[in-house]
Amino acid sequence: MKSQVARWGNSLAFRIPRQIVIQLGLKPHTTLLCSVEAGALVVRPVREVKEYSLEELLVGPLEVEDEVDWGKPEGKEAW
Description:
The chain is α+β, with helices and mostly antiparallel strands. It has helices spanning about 20-25, 55-60; strands at about 5-10, 10-15, 30-35, 40-45.
């Protein structure tokens, strides 16, 4: 699929073909990560990570791991 670069203010821009938009599930205001790899422009959507509230994090049982045995002191550690 071809797309043409055009001027957008002081920057350059290109349109993403509809088939790619549908395939990647892109929406307006999707954040994209742009990089150059082996001389090619690579554009990847940044998938949003859900942010939890304190109340959401505190719901349910807390998982407490067992104490870790790090062995005997090797230096001047205070036990």
